[in-house]
Amino acid sequence: MDIIKKVEIRRIKNDEVQYIEDFIVAEYPLTIFLNEIEIITLLATPKSLKELSVGFLISEGFIDNMDEIENIKFYEDKGLMYINTINDKDLRLKLKGKRTITSGCGKGTSFYNVLDTFKEYKIDDNFQISKDAIISIAKDFNGISETFQLTGGVHCVGICSKENIIWYEDDIGRHNALDKILGKCHIEGIDFKDKFIITTGRISSEILIKAAKRGISLVVSRSAPTEMSVALSKELGICLVGFVRGDKMNIYSNFSKVLL
């Protein structure tokens, strides 16, 4: 599927009008079924949709890991992703908790209860990284997405070691981009230990919880955090770093993880 489309536009600069072709990012509705039960429809950039589906289902607690999955079938023309597990768990128990309308692009839905995550996902590790390493990786991360360079219409998320960016994904939604990254890690069997997340988007509570569920104790962004994400990061043992631009950054919590 094409993720970038051409459209005819009128570009106005001062008093000059230009009739040109411009690039925009595609938006694709993806409906995920688990064991024939419809779970959700995500509005996403049409790439890495298998990774997005797996990442979402694990993020939201419908499945625990890749070992539970028996098969995956994708019907591109209909926008339908069917994932079947070895054991058919009672999804009603998973959906019993309160739904949360997230702050993500398109007002996504999360199925977790934030208060239930504090004790279960508290991270206590010895992860540390130098501020210079963060600055270097952030510089490499800026401009890494060709889709953003062409359209300006996507968020980008990367999974990183202390030395470099392992891979990245982009999407019209921040949460989608992160779930694509996390899903790829699960599919490829990549250990989350000693890894961290970098993103172009705002750091919200949902982003922090997705990281905490994988034991990731550092989240970095060139943008701002929310008040709840800062509070959550302290509870969950995550170091939250925002506004990483040039040689500047703000460290909001668990300061000892960044070596000055």
Structure explained in plain terms:
This protein has 260 residues and is α/β, with parallel strands linked by helices. The protein folds into two domains: 28-114, Ubiquitin-like (UB roll) (Roll), CATH 3.10.20.10; 129-259, Cytidine Deaminase, domain 2, CATH 3.40.140.10. 27% of the residues lie in helices and 34% in strands. It has a six-stranded mixed sheet, sandwiched between helices. Strands 4-3-6-5 form a four-stranded mixed sheet, covered by helices on one side. Strand 14 (239-245) and strand 15 (248-251) form a beta hairpin. The longest helix has 15 residues, at 174-188. Mean pLDDT is 88; it is low at 96-103.
How many E strands? Answer: 16
Uncertain segments are 96-103
- Rg over CA atoms: 19 Å
Q: Give me the oligomer status.
A: single chain
Q: Strands of the biggest beta sheet: in what spatial order?
A: 11-10-12-13-14-15
What's the end-to-end separation, in Å? 45 Å
List SSEs in N-to-C order. Answer: EEEEHEEHEEHEHHEEHEHEHEEE
Main sheet makeup: 6 strands, mixed
Work out the strand percent: 25-35%
Structural class given helices, strands, pairing? alpha/beta
Q: Which CATH class of the largest domain applies here?
A: Alpha Beta
Total tally of structural domains: 2
Question: Based on the structure given, which CATH architecture of the largest domain is correct?
Answer: 3-Layer(aba) Sandwich
Overall pLDDT: 88
